[in-house]
Amino acid sequence: MSIKLSILPHQTECLERAIQVFDKVRFNKTNEIFANPLIDINDANLKRNIWEIQENFNEKKIPKEYRTRREDNFGIDVRMETGTGKTYCYTRLIYELNKKYGFHKFIILVPTTPIKEGTKSFITSDYANKHFSDLYPNKKIALSVLNAQKKVNGKRKMFPQAISDFVRGTKLENTKISVLLMSSGMLLSKKTMDTEYDQALFGTYSNPYDTLKATYPIVIIDEPHKFKVENKAYRTLIEKINPQCVIRFGATFPNRTKDKEKDYNNLIFNLGSCEAFNSNLVKGVATQMIEQENSNELKIKLLDFSIKPKLCKFKNEKTNKNYELNIGDSLAIIDKNFKGISIESIGKTEDNDIKSGVVLSNGQILSKGDQIYPSIYGDTYQSLMLKQAIKNHIKQEQENFFRERKIKTLSLFFIDSVYSYRDKDSAGSLRINFEKILKENLEEELEKFSTSDSKIHKEYVSFLKSSLEDISVTNGGYFAEDNSNSDEEIQKEVDQILRDKQSLLNFKDENGNWNTRRFIFSKWTLREGWDNPNVFQICKLRSSGSEISKLQEVGRGLRLPVDEYGNRISNEQFYLTYLIDYSEKDFAENLIKEVNKDGKNINNLIIDDKILEKAAQDRGIDKKKLFINLLLENFVDENKEIIIENKERFFAEYPEFNIGLQQNKIINKNKNQSGTVGIRREKFNEIRDLWKKINQKYYLKLDEISEDELYEAILEILKSDIADELSVKVIEKKISPLDGSFELKEEMINYYHLNENMEYNTFLKQIQKSTGISFFIMHKALCAYNKIKKLEQSFFNQKTVVKFTEKYQEWFEKTFLKRFSYKAMEIDSLETQLTDINGEPKERIIQGLVGIMKDERIVTPDNFLYDTVVFDSGKEKENIESSNIKEVVVFGKIPRKSIQVPLYFGGTTSPDFMYIVKKDNDYQLNLIVETKDVKKNSDIRGEEEHRIFAAKEFFKQLKADGLNISFKKQIKSDDIIKIIKDLIENER
C-alpha cells in the first residue's frame, strides 16, 4: 500500500498566500553560487503584499489583533491546525519558492527527535517523491539530516557531513533544492555547531554557524510554540545564522511575554481548530471517562515549592498531613499508588502555560494549587482503563475491517514509565496485563466469528488467529530511552512507529503475512510532531499538564484516516475516542471552549448585524421582526447576546447563527452525547428493499464521441480567443478627506506583462492533465488554428491552459447533458451506511451522516427511520415535522454521500430524503427528494442544475430496471406534503 497524496483546497490557499508575499519584491544576486538570492527587506512591496493578503485574500481576513510583526527579523507565520497537512504544505512551499523565486537553500528546524524523524520520513518517502515529481518535473529535494557527531578518538575533527552536503549544493544544479533538517538540540550543540574544524569549506568556512549564515537560508520552523523568541534556540538562530526569512508553521504559537497575546509575525494564513473541525478536515473527538468510584476520593495538593533550596510541599487533603519532597524523591512516600513516580525537577519548565512548577517523572507538570488523585495511578484503575480501551478498539476495528475498503485501526496509549512497559530484558507489568486482557478479548471475538460463512468474517478470523499466535507483536512502544537502546527487536519497533508510518497502516507485509501491530505505547515522547492518520483512540494512563499539551495529544489522532489502498477518506464523519481518567472529567467542555476561540464573536456570543440581516432575508421576514422573535423565544437578550443556557436549542432552530464549533464535533460520551443516532429496526424493515435497490452499484456510460467532433470542438474553443498573457496590476491607494472624515480610493495606475511561457510539450501535458485530451488531437487542432492565426510563443502559458480548460469544461457539460446513461453492475454491496455486511441494520450511526443539528424538544415522528430528529437546515427540519402523515409509511434522511450517483462531468451527488408512500392502503410508491436551500427554481444554475438532471436520469434508470420510484426536487417554497399528495394523485 502506498499513501496517495491529494491537493486539498485549504493547502492550495495557504501556498498561494505564501507565494504572494514575495510578488514583485526586489531580489539581489550574490556572488556566491551556493547562496540564496537576497530579499530586499526594505522593498515597499513586501509590506504591501502582506497587508493585501491579510486584508483581501479570498475574503478571508486575518483578524486585526493578529496582525503583529517583529522589527528585528523578517518572517511570515502560517497557522494550521494539527492534522491538516503542515508538513505537506511547507515541503511543497519549498518547491514553489524555488520555482518562482530561485531559492535553493532551506533549513527546517524542529524541536524534537520524533518530529525530525517524521519530517524526514515524509520528505524521503516514495509516495511523497512521486507526488512532487508529478507537480515539479526535474526538481528534487536533496535532504541532509544533521545528527550528533560521533566521536572518533585520535582522529581529526571532521566537518559535519550533513552541513557540508547542504552548503555544497549550488544554484547551477538546476534540478536540486538543498534542504537541511535539524532539531533545536543540534542547533544549540556547541560540540557540533560552535567548533572550528580542521577543514574549511570553499577554503573559508570552518565554523558550522558561519557556514550556514553564508548561504542566506530561508528557515522553516515547525511547532513555533517550542521556539519562543526569548528562548535560547530562537536567539541562537537569529544571532548565529541570521536567516533572511523565518517561516513558522504551527497549530499553536507562543504568547508574548508582556501582554500574553499571541506572538504572530506577519500571520498570512489562519486555519484554526474551529474551521478544521467544521470543514471536516480532521476527525471529531469523543471523550470517554472511567467514573470515579468514590466522591470522597483521596486528593493530594501541591501547596508550594521553592527554587533555593529545591523543595516542594504536598498535602494529603483527607488526613491534612503535609509532606516535603526533594528532587528524586518518590511520591509513593505519600501514597503507594504513586509507585514509580518521582520528582524530576522543580522550578522553570518547558511548558508555555506553566512557566514554573514541579515536573514529575511521568512528564506531568504541577503548578501551585494543583491536585492529583493517587487512585488513578493504581493498578486496579489502570486495568479498568485498559479493558475499556481494548473494548473500544475492537468495536472500531470491526467497523473499519468490515468496510468495502478496509481501514487499519490503531490505538495509542500514554503511560507513566518505560519500565512499566519494558523492564530491562522482559515485558513490564503493564504490558503483561495489557496482553492478558487483549488475549481474552480476541479469543471471545474469534469464537463469535469462527462459524460464519461470510468471506469478510473469515478474513477477520484469520487476522485474529495471527494476532493470537504471537500476542506480543500486536503492540509496540517508543520512549526517549530507546534512542540509545541497541536491542534489535526494540529498534525494529521504534523504526516502524517513528520512521515507517506506512508499514503500520498495512494489513499485510511484503510476504503476505498479517501485520498485527496496532497498539502503540509511549510515555511523553510522542506528544508532539508524531501522528498517524489511522489512530482512532488515545488512552491516557497518565495525566498531563497544560491545556496546550492536551490539545497536542489529541492531535496525534486528528488526521483523517486512509484506507487499505492509501486513499484519504474525507467524505465521512470519523471520531477519535479519547479515554481519560476522572481527573480530566471536564476535558470535552474545555476543548470546546478552546476550539470556539477561533470562531468569530464566539467569546462574547453576540450576534453580528450582517448575520442577522442575512438570516432574515433567507427566512423572508423583516430583520427587526426576526430579532423580536429571538427575544420572545428567550434566545437572545436586548444586546443581541445569546442566552447561554438556551444556546443548543437556539442553534438547533436557527442553525445559520452557529458560527462556532458545530454540534457533535466534540462529544462527551459520559453525558450520553454519543454523537450517534439509532436506527429503528422495525422502520428499517419497511424501507429495506428501497435501501438495497438504491445502493445497487451503477456505472456511468457516456455516448461515444468521434475524434472529428472532438477536434472541431477544440478548434472552436481556440477560435474563441482564449489567448491571454500573465499580467500584474499596479494599484495605488490614496486616503482622501471627505465630509470631515477620510475615504480610501483605489486606482490602477499601471500593469506589466509577465513572460512566463511554457515549452510546447509542457503545454500539451498540462492540457492533457486538466482535460484528458490526447497529445495527438490537441496538437492537430493547434496546427490547424496556427494556419488561421499565427500562434506566438506567448500563447503557451499557464493562463491559456486555465482559460482553455474552463471553455472545454463548459463545452463538455453542455454536449453530454443528454448523452449519458446509467447501467447496473453485477456487484453485491457489502456494508452500507445503514447496514452491516449481512444486510442487517446497524444499531447506531454517526449523527453527522444524517444531520449536524439535533432538536430533542421535537417528538420524533412514529414513521421516522431514526430515533432522534436530526437535520442540516431549517427546511429539512420542516420536512421531518410535516411528514408524520398517514400516507407516509416510513421516511428518513439519506446518509451523507452514501448513494453517490456518478456525474457525467465528474464527481458524485447524493439526494437528501427517501420515502415509502402508500396509496389506497396496499399500493406502495418509493420517493426520493433532493432539497435545495433556494427560494426559486431560477436560482438553481450551472453545475447544480446539471447535478439535479443527472440524479433524475439515474432514478429514471432505476425505474426502468423495475423499481417503482420517483425523484423530486424541492426548494424552500415547496411543501413536502403537497409533493407527496401530488405523487399519489399522479399515480391514479
TrEMBL record:
UniProt-listed Pfam families: RE_endonuc, ResIII
Gene3D superfamilies tied to this protein: P-loop containing nucleotide triphosphate hydrolases (3.40.50.300)
SUPFAM superfamilies: P-loop containing nucleoside triphosphate hydrolases (SSF52540)
Record key words, sorted: Endonuclease, Hydrolase, Nuclease
Matching SMART domains: DEXDc
InterPro entries registered for this protein in UniProt: Helicase/UvrB_N, Helicase_ATP-bd, Helicase_Restrict-Modif_Enz, P-loop_NTPase, RE_endonuc_C
Coiled coil residues, start to end: none
Residue ranges of domain Helicase ATP-binding in the record: 67-271
Gene Ontology MF: a single term: ATP binding
GO CC field: cytosol
Highest taxon of the lineage: Bacteria
Identification of the protein by name: Type III restriction-modification system endonuclease
Species annotation: Fusobacterium nucleatum
Lineage of producing organism: Bacteria, Fusobacteriati, Fusobacteriota, Fusobacteriia, Fusobacteriales
